[in-house]
């Protein structure tokens, strides 16, 4: 009886292998040969799943984006306005190993999108979805009287999005990067949306260097 192969599972195995190689060797070290070797595939066996490294990177970015959105839905469930916005922004920050690994996929994708129209379109669509979510939370916060900034709501979402995404670049190589402790406060200062300062990660995960959070060894 022929062996049943779960192609979706195989693709995710290849994404995981790609993460591990990028963590050790950077994007340039993640060749198709190295990815196949890391995943335990025969050389050339990746072709049916990902004909090129670019198609693998696009799939990996989509996988990361979908995982992030699932977590965002979990941490913002039952919240609205400023509480939901802060939970959203903290969720996309690279504050633990899982999200640092995801950033290692996202940042190279952003870099390639600068000169690649197809990747640029994928990036724009994903960011447009996030901006719509931020606008919704800001509208709720304004209605509740929690937003004090005299700035048009068409500007604030972009500022909030920048605060959320910029630290991913800084944490691409965490051993060399500084702590992201100022980011939640930067979000507050940029939007002037909240009286709180230095809010914790809504998942309760500590981060070294953040006031009020236990540092990790």
TrEMBL record:
<feature type="compositionally biased region" description="Polar residues">
    <location>
        <begin position="180"/>
        <end position="193"/>
    </location>
</feature>
<dbReference type="GO" id="GO:0000976">
    <property type="term" value="F:transcription cis-regulatory region binding"/>
</dbReference>
<dbReference type="InterPro" id="IPR039538">
    <property type="entry name" value="BetI_C"/>
</dbReference>
<feature type="region of interest" description="Disordered">
    <location>
        <begin position="160"/>
        <end position="217"/>
    </location>
</feature>
<protein>
    <submittedName>
        <fullName>TetR family transcriptional regulator</fullName>
    </submittedName>
</protein>
<dbReference type="Pfam" id="PF00440">
    <property type="entry name" value="TetR_N"/>
</dbReference>
<keyword id="KW-0804">Transcription</keyword>
<feature type="domain" description="HTH tetR-type">
    <location>
        <begin position="8"/>
        <end position="68"/>
    </location>
</feature>
<dbReference type="InterPro" id="IPR009057">
    <property type="entry name" value="Homeodomain-like_sf"/>
</dbReference>
<keyword id="KW-0805">Transcription regulation</keyword>
<dbReference type="InterPro" id="IPR036271">
    <property type="entry name" value="Tet_transcr_reg_TetR-rel_C_sf"/>
</dbReference>
<dbReference type="Pfam" id="PF13977">
    <property type="entry name" value="TetR_C_6"/>
</dbReference>
<feature type="DNA-binding region" description="H-T-H motif">
    <location>
        <begin position="31"/>
        <end position="50"/>
    </location>
</feature>
<keyword id="KW-0678">Repressor</keyword>
<dbReference type="InterPro" id="IPR050109">
    <property type="entry name" value="HTH-type_TetR-like_transc_reg"/>
</dbReference>
<dbReference type="GO" id="GO:0003700">
    <property type="term" value="F:DNA-binding transcription factor activity"/>
</dbReference>
<keyword id="KW-0238">DNA-binding</keyword>
<dbReference type="InterPro" id="IPR001647">
    <property type="entry name" value="HTH_TetR"/>
</dbReference>
<feature type="compositionally biased region" description="Basic and acidic residues">
    <location>
        <begin position="194"/>
        <end position="210"/>
    </location>
</feature>
């Amino acid at each position: 009886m022929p062996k049943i192969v779960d192609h979706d599972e195989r693709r995710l195995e290849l994404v995981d292998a790609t993460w591990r190689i990028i963590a050790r060797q950077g994007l340039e070290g993640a060749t198709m040969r190295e990815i196949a070797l890391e995943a335990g595939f025969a050389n050339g066996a990746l072709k049916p799943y990902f004909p090129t490294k670019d198609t693998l990177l696009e799939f990996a970015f989509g996988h990361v984006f979908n995982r992030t959105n699932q977590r965002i839905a979990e941490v913002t469930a039952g919240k609205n306005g400023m509480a939901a916005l802060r939970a959203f922004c903290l969720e996309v920050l690279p504050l633990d190993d899982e999200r640092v690994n995801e950033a290692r996929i996202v940042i190279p994708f952003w870099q390639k999108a600068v000169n690649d129209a197809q990747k640029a379109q994928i990036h724009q669509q994903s960011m447009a979805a996030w901006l719509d979510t931020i606008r919704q939370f800001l509208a709720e916060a304004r209605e509740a009287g929690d937003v004090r900034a005299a700035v048009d709501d068409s500007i604030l979402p972009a500022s909030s999005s920048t605060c959320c995404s910029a630290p991913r670049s800084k944490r691409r190589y965490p051993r060399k990067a500084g702590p992201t402790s100022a980011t939640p406060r930067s979000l507050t200062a940029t939007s002037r949306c909240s009286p709180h300062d230095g809010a914790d990660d809504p998942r309760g995960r500590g981060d070294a260097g953040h006031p009020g959070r236990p540092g990790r060894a």
